[in-house]
Amino acid sequence: MSEGKIRRPKAETPKGFRDYFGTEVTERKAMLDAIGAVYHRYGFEALETSGVETVEALGKFLPDVDRPNEGVFAWKDEDDSWMALRYDLTAPLARVAAQYRNDLPSPYRRYAMGPVWRNEKPGPGRFRQFYQCDADTVGSGSVAADAEICAMLSDALETVGIPRGDYVVKVNNRKVLNGVMEVAGVLDPKDPAKFEAERGIVLRAIDKIDRLGDGGVRALLGEGRKDESGDFTKGAGLNAEQAEVVMGFVSAKRDTGAETVARLRELVGTSAIGEEGVSELEQIASLLEAQGYGPDRIVIDPGVVRGLGYYTGPVYEAELTFEILDEKGRKRQFGSVAGGGRYDDLVKRFTGQAVPATGVSIGVDRLLAALRAKGRAAAEAAGPVVVTVMDRDRMADYMAMVGELRQAGIRAEVYLGNPKNFGNQLKYADKRASPVAVIQGSDEAARGVVVLKDLVLGAKIAQSATLEEWKDRPAQLEVARADLVAAVQKMLAQ
Amino acid sequence: MSEGKIRRPKAETPKGFRDYFGTEVTERKAMLDAIGAVYHRYGFEALETSGVETVEALGKFLPDVDRPNEGVFAWKDEDDSWMALRYDLTAPLARVAAQYRNDLPSPYRRYAMGPVWRNEKPGPGRFRQFYQCDADTVGSGSVAADAEICAMLSDALETVGIPRGDYVVKVNNRKVLNGVMEVAGVLDPKDPAKFEAERGIVLRAIDKIDRLGDGGVRALLGEGRKDESGDFTKGAGLNAEQAEVVMGFVSAKRDTGAETVARLRELVGTSAIGEEGVSELEQIASLLEAQGYGPDRIVIDPGVVRGLGYYTGPVYEAELTFEILDEKGRKRQFGSVAGGGRYDDLVKRFTGQAVPATGVSIGVDRLLAALRAKGRAAAEAAGPVVVTVMDRDRMADYMAMVGELRQAGIRAEVYLGNPKNFGNQLKYADKRASPVAVIQGSDEAARGVVVLKDLVLGAKIAQSATLEEWKDRPAQLEVARADLVAAVQKMLAQ
Fold first, then answer.
1. Which EC number(s) does the record attach to this protein (chains A, B) (predicted)?
2. Which chain B residues are closer than 8 Å to A43 by Cβ?
3. I need a surface site. Which of A314, B58, B215, B470 has the fewest CB within 10 A?
4. Three-state SS for B79?
């Protein structure tokens, strides 16, 4: 068979996935490290589960449970049991909390970071693998656990470079929403399962208010809504009066936390669950206040409900408040970068016993995008010193040089391509963002010297109209071979 | 439906996978960080591809290609194309090198770390997800690239805590083996495809010499071998004379590199490919020598062949030379923790153009196990300071305390379980390996003080027969509330 007839595999990243290069990797790692250090200081312990879980253990908790593929990548194991890639870090935690319940400390504070996978239609900026960075407390029903997570989230954002004032952690409570729905007649406290579908629609509708606006949400609260594509989404079937009550809840935020709480108290009326929710919000605010986390960082905001069905109490969301330009050059708020809440029933799925839990997930990739949009990402890392190869036969000499530089802690490499064309070597050094090139031909070798080329300075000289400002600093320098390391160190320090 | 009739999901780690807790996670992270820093200093750039690849791009390069499932976890995407979890980090690199060949610097040095997945029968200590930590140079055919990888591997091992003398990097060359096989008549230089199956069997047989011994390998070189279970593995069909030549190669190692090279030269006789291989080994040794990497770290050892089929030139393997006790209490050498080699054809699969490449993979989990076996793992990390809860109503006070401690950089947490039973709180602190417990009842609160319990000292006193040695240091201390942070810092520093 001739070469031409061989069908070659396509060198393609699979659809919806992407590759990360150089600083894209190290920047994310630095962010994960910084957040992990905050979580650790708060007493949380690392946990790493594998990417694979049984489908049974994962359960179905993605917001859009109605899609045919259910949002996960799944396959059959040899023994015919179904396995799947985890779609978040919460479901594996619930499994771990149940599996090791006799061994883990209780309450169990844990943090986890790593990729999760979603079998979704890829879109611009939407990938089928992305990182999450979670912290959860399992086994505490106290709102102090929720307050702690909010404070920690605030610390984490500031630690990675979002200054106070550029973000806000919004706190709400599902119980207040339940109270409001009780008042509106879509919650029967004696039969919580009744109206569950309607409440799910209400929840997801409110969660989309930023995108759909008041009108869109009202449509979904009522009969339903036809989107731009003509697709119709069935609504919750609330009448105008009921919808009014719900919309009143969404816009219940007032200037101060106390005023918001007072307004919420009005809205939940005599609902016991509603009153419980309002009182929890008050407690969270006061616990945070005691630690110095005031409304400049954390606020009560009834507009935040979170789309996930499994939350049972406090919910929270971190939003970046600064504006960025979107793809079309329009200003818009950056929006949510983290969210979470209390989910008291996930562990119960396994054990039958109620285990209260609360936690947060930081969308690391979105947060990185925000820092880049604000120009606050770490500076591009410097490339390595490149030792060029003038004489192919003296490779051992060049490797000795690079060895010495590395021993001194200097990032360095010898050119390993075909050394014939020296211009290519300098182009390579340029592509590598190399600060210094080391050159030694046979002449220099005979004289016991090396030439150092200051590539940073060289680039500056190439850009500037006049050499005046650089004249005191030579872009090229000959030094004794024995002084190689010291001279490179000096050049790098300039 | 009654609770009892609900079928609950099993809380189980999927078969062959495992969970990692606390220091198991942080120790591995510290090791990956340390190795990554070495790779970076050598000029390698980070690359992170996703866990998922197309089956087409992955190819079939696992050593045991004859198993039915072919060793990978695979499933069909919506568009009916097959996707799979990566089984190593080399196949994705080959895909990346082909896909971005016009944008990447050439040669391209990259490092990558992360989990890989094998759809294999799980066994003791063998998991279906594990970490690899790779560094590869793509686009350089120079043996200087191989030498560099060997030096870097040596540095990496010493950096993570394997002292010189406790490891050795063994280098060999597939071309030498090919030369030997040419001499033995199982390689026809004019038709490289001929005898390929036989050479694969020879390769895998030699790779198993530690396990099968001389006799087992000889059987596989000849007619074949029946294992303990009675299963028969077909041999390469070499006659006794041919097998003798191959066995001579495996045991060609002599006291010095020069002697080994001389012996190999004898063995390959007039084979051109064999001579090329011997000469490459000589060059690698001299390049390493120039950087100070002598035979105390890196040696030529013809016993190392590596099982993978795709290697085309130098192969290398890092072995730990110290003895550990196995599960049955017997002494044995720890063995291989890293390996790699030159594979010049993997990128060609995609592009049709030859792209030389060489690289190493460190088995991080095995290396960690080795360090633990030698008692060289990092000390168990200290738990957090635990602020106990005496009065449920004063949670805000306790959270203020823990907030102050965290602000001062002290790892601390407030007890978030049910505070009713104070004994449980101290048991919790014990389980958390907490060094200090902070206690403030209403009496202490009224007097503006807190009590600090030194739990490390407490544990020591509980263990020792006499209090004499501890009498100067009280295990419990009352300090002013305002001095909380300073007093805890002092207690932690002791």
1. 6.1.1.21
2. 383-384, 386, 411-413, 432
3. B215
4. coil
Give the distance from CA B316 to its chain's centroid.
16
The per-residue pLDDT for range B390-446, each reduced to its tens digit, is: 999 999 999 999 999 999 999 999 999 999 999 999 999 999 999 999 999 999 999
- Interface residue of B23, B41, B119, B345 to substitute, partner A, most A CBs within 10 Å: B41
What secondary structure does DSSP assign to A257-290, as a single string?
Answer: HHHHHHHHHHHHTT-HHHHHHHHHHHHHHHHHHH
> Domains along chain B?
385-493 (3.40.50.800)
Distance CA A265, CA B158 (A): 64
Looking at the DSSP bridge assignments, the partners of residue B168 are B319
Q: How far is CA A270 from the centre of its chain?
A: 40
Residues B452/B477, Cβ–Cβ less than 8 Å: yes
Which candidate from A25, A148, A399 shows the least CB-CB separation from B48? A25
So what's the pLDDT on residue B1? 39
User: What is the C-alpha to C-alpha distance for residues A55 and A406, in angstroms, rounded to an integer?
Assistant: 48
At residue B314, does pLDDT exceed 90? yes
Mutate to test the interface with B, among A29, A50, A78, A102 (most CBs of B within 10 A): A50
Between B380 and B364, whose confidence is greater? B364
pLDDT higher than 80, residue A124: no
Interchain contact, A399 vs B291, CB within 8 Å: yes
Interchain pair A73, B53: CB under 8 A = no
Beta A129-138 vs A108-117: how paired, if at all? antiparallel
Question: For residue B400, which amino acid is it?
Answer: A
Instruction: Please state, as a whole number, how many other Cβ atoms lie within 10 Å of the Cβ of residue B461.
Output: 16
Is B95–A11 a contact, with Cβ atoms under 8 angstroms apart?
A: yes
Which pLDDT score, from 0 to 100, does residue A92 have?
96
CB contacts, 8 Å: A47 with chain B = 19-22, 25
Residues of B in contact with A292 (CB under 8 A): 403
